Automatic annotation (TrEMBL):
InterPro entries: MBL_superfamily_lactonases, Metallo-B-lactamas, RibonucZ/Hydroxyglut_hydro. Residues 49-257 form the Metallo-beta-lactamase domain. SMART domains: Lactamase_B. SUPFAM superfamilies: Metallo-hydrolase/oxidoreductase (SSF56281). Keywords: Hydrolase, Metal-binding, Zinc. Belongs to the metallo-beta-lactamase superfamily. This is N-acyl homoserine lactonase family protein. The keyword Iron-sulfur does not apply. Pfam families: Lactamase_B (PF00753). Its cofactor is Zn(2+).
Amino acid sequence: MSDTTRDKIKVTILPTGTMHADLTWLLIDPSRMATHQQPAKQRDWVEVPTHVVYVEHPNGQKLMWDAGVPRDWETRWAPSGLGQFFPVDAATEDDWLDSRLRQLKLEPNDIDYLVLSHLHLDHAANAKFWEKADTTIIVDEAEKAGAFSFDGHNKGAHIKSDYDTLELDTISADTELMPGVTLLRTPGHTWGTMSLQVDLADSGTMIFASDSLYLKESYGPPPIAAGIVYDTVAWFESVDKIRAIQERTGATVVFGHDANQIRELRTGPGNHYT
């Protein structure tokens, strides 16, 4: 790539509203859990920020990673009961994904690829913005199979109406979607959770781990699992996979819901990485 910004991959991290939840959902930390000797240990009610990632490639293509939380979370999440555990109670008008698209002067149809790390309610909630667009929507094949494997409104944090009418393309192996932009299969949190690797000219490699790694503490070492993990063995294997790539490339690993890290990153329109 040349030294001009227009000839480099540009990555913009966009916060899309903050939930709150008990820390145990994010981090199974034996040091803070109740024991027989400490049955009433204080619980921690913590920030759970969400974000999407906008990738502009010098080949002219545009990619959106994840789709954020919905404006109507209270009513949409009510049948599942999950709004009581993950209220989106710290979102500004500028945070919602439709606002973010306007800030970027984008319409859904301007996005070539919408890649959904997985189909949980806080990552796929706005995916139907792209229902009538020409955008290619991509998920892991195991995620698609699992997400359509149940009847009814939801299975855990999968709410079928978030994605049931979308045409979903799938990957079945790590896939370089564009030069320097690779989808990584990192299952465990769900059937087919993915991470996004972007190799940048100036900032080096960045790995957007989504819920493969909620927090810096999740990554360790040693890795600490979460209260929502579909397959613990696969999750540990995925952490090892991410760590191997990070050690080989010197990558910055961006965690899925880390309130401390998101404050340290450059975020919002105009604050991109190259």
